[in-house]
# Entry
Amino acid sequence: MTAQEPTLKSQYAEKVTADLALNTAEQERIRKEIASLQENLTGLEQDHELLVGMRAAIGDTPTAVPAPRTGKKTATSARKPAAAKSATTADTKKATAKKATAVKAVAKKPAAKKPVAEKAAAAKEKPVPLTELIHQHLSGQAEPKTAREIAQALTTAHPDRNLSDNLVRTTTERLVARSMAERAKQGSTVYYTAIQHNTPAAEAPAAVPAQTENAPVATTA
# Structure
């Protein structure tokens, strides 16, 4: 086996050397053929230009003759459609991406806020004071009313307000203290009647402190 190894190696080396020599010779032969063909092509192109000039000088009507094409031009022409197709595909992808971004932006866009004018109007719409509601109700009644009757009537007219009998009774007593209502008692029942004044009610002194609708109140007889 040891004696055969150098023999095989030398055989492969000789074969590779021969193949390299053959390859080099073939390349040289093809180069010469290309050079010869290039010379022939150059001569034909020059003859073509000369013939075209002679026909123009004679005045003969030219017929459609295809122009000579070179390998480079053909390759360039073949690449143009592919480049145009790639550009079109890229533009389509960009347009799709922009459209998707616009849709996401619209979806994430917060709801439009109310105009400032509407907010200002809502802020100005404050609830009417309970004392004014009671006084207006009593002023429109022909007979005296109890606190429960007043509370029931105002609850029906203003269902959004939390009006209890005790709250209405205490607020009506404030009107009595301000001389805006008159209090009359018949047995265990207390009746109230509105008093009309020409002067503003705000000028009358208030004997009972202000009280909110949801605050606890004391029950009066």
